[in-house]
Structures are given as C-alpha cells and as structure tokens.
Design brief:
- It comes from Asanoa iriomotensis.
- Keywords: Oxidoreductase.
- InterPro entries: NAD(P)-bd_dom_sf, SDR_fam, Sec_Metab_Biosynth_Oxidored.
- This is NAD(P)-dependent dehydrogenase (Short-subunit alcohol dehydrogenase family).
- It is a single chain.
- This protein is 39% helix and 12% strand.
- A seven-stranded mixed sheet has the order 2-1-3-4-5-6-7, with helices on both faces.
- Helix 3 runs parallel beside helix 5 and helix 3 packs across helix 8.
- The radius of gyration is 17 Å and the shape is globular.
- The two termini are 25 Å apart.
C-alpha cells in the first residue's frame, strides 16, 4: 500500500484525488486544520511529523486573494502558500520519498507555454503592484522553476508538473462580480470536472514518467526546452526561496546511485 500525501487534499481537485486514492492507498490529506501553510514554521513542523516513507507527494494547496495580505513572517500570502510551502514540503520530504520504491512529486501548477506568468525579481512579494492575477501567475511560473531546481539535484524522485487548465473546481469564487459569474459559467460549460481531473492525476501517480522532470498541460507534454524552464533562473529562484526558509534545506542524504 502506498502512502500519498496531498497538500490541499481536503477540497477541490486535491480533495477529489484523495477520495479516489483512498480505495487502495493510505492517503494523508492536508488542509488548514493541519497547519497554516502560509507559515514557514508551521509547514516545517508539519513536514517533520509526516511518515518516514512517502510514495507520492501531491502539491495542490493555494490561497488567492483580491487584496494583498502579508503573513506574520513578512511574506505575501499567495507567494507563501503557493511557492514557499511547496518548496519546503518537497525538500523536507525528499528523504521520505527516497525511501519509496517509485517516488513521485506531482505539482498542480506550471505555466510552461503560457506567457502570462513571470517572476518579479525586483519585487517578488508584490509590495508595489499587487493583483491576484499577477500573484497567481508568478506563483505558477515559480513552481516551474523550482521543479527544474529540484530535478537538477541527484534523486530517485520523479517530479511531474501538471497544469489541468480550466477545471470546474469553484476557484471563481475568489473573483469579483461580474467576472465571478462569467468565470463560473465558463467553468461549468467548458471546464473539466474535478473527478475527471483526479482520474488523470491518479493515472500519473500510478505510472509516472521515467524522466526526472516532466511537464504537462492537461494531457499534452510541454517541452522543457522552453525559456520558462531556464536552469539559471531556476537556480536563482531556488536560492531566493531557500532564503525565505532560513537557508537551504539540509539534513537529507540524497540518493546518488
């Protein structure tokens, strides 16, 4: 029986995936009742309390706000949960993943091939020009790059970026009217259901690609040769996010065979 940890596994796509996997796997679905993932301290403590062998880590937690919210640790809220917590969970749980026979990280993010997202290197916390769209798109691009940095280190863990595109998951509730109503209607008509998306994700967990890093927009592979996956930018962002966590996440004995 596999042990699958799903950050953001109590609702939306993560919740549907958790419900599907529970038939055969031990699923640990993490939600706000378990820890505030906008907090570096609480996320690190949560990771420390998880099992010492994990077969799959699914990163789907996010929180989006129309107004800029700063956490007690001084991070913009979207960046904290969408970028920093995903980095921290992946790195802190790397040793537990390495103990599994076929470990995989599945990150529900990534904008590879979608040009809207970029890293605001001069102001990553968006203290000057915040918008929910800018924060969300920066977070998606950041996850592309952090996956590149993760895969660049020797590891048995397979990292999969997956952008499900339009899903009728209720995310439109974060928008103002009339965009909320329009987006909700579009998602209901054109979006995939959370159950259909969860089925695709479960298949990826059952049969992850052999490459250290792969990226998909829905079912279509995305080339890692695109500029969105630039290794130099990945290393730069990796160092930046590590700094927010108090320095590089160490203490793991990484697989080198």
């Amino acid at each position: 029986m596999r042990t699958v940890v799903i950050a953001g596994g109590t609702r939306g796509i993560g919740g549907a995936l958790a419900a599907r996997l529970r038939h055969n796997d031990r699923v640990i679905a993490l939600g706000s009742a378990d820890a505030d993932l906008t907090s570096v301290r609480q996320t690190a403590a949560l990771a420390a309390g998880l099992p010492d062998r994990i077969d799959a880590l699914v990163l789907s937690a996010g929180r989006f706000s129309r107004r800029r919210v700063e956490t007690p640790e001084g991070l913009e809220q979207t960046f904290a949960i969408y970028v920093v917590s995903r980095y921290l969970l992946a790195e802190r749980l790397r040793p537990a993943l390495e103990r599994a026979p076929k470990p995989v990280i599945l990150n529900l993010s990534g904008t590879g091939g979608i040009k809207a997202g970029r890293i605001h290197w001069d102001d990553p916390q968006l203290s000057r020009r915040y918008s929910m769209f800018r924060a969300t798109m920066q977070g998606a691009r950041a996850n592309d790059l952090l996956a590149v940095a993760f895969a660049a280190r020797p590891s048995r863990v397979r990292y999969v970026l997956y952008n499900p595109l339009l899903v009728n998951s209720g995310m439109h509730r974060h928008l103002d009217q009339p965009l909320r109503a329009l987006s909700g209607a579009a998602a209901a008509v054109f979006g995939a259901s959370v159950d259909t998306t969860a089925e695709r994700l479960a298949e990826l967990l059952d049969n992850p690609p052999d490459a250290p890093l792969t990226a998909f927009r829905r079912a279509r592979p995305v080339s890692l040769d695109r500029p969105e996956f630039d290794p130099d930018a990945a290393a730069r962002l990796d160092a930046m996010v590590a700094g927010y966590c108090g320095g590089p996440v160490t203490g793991a004995t990484y697989y080198t065979g």
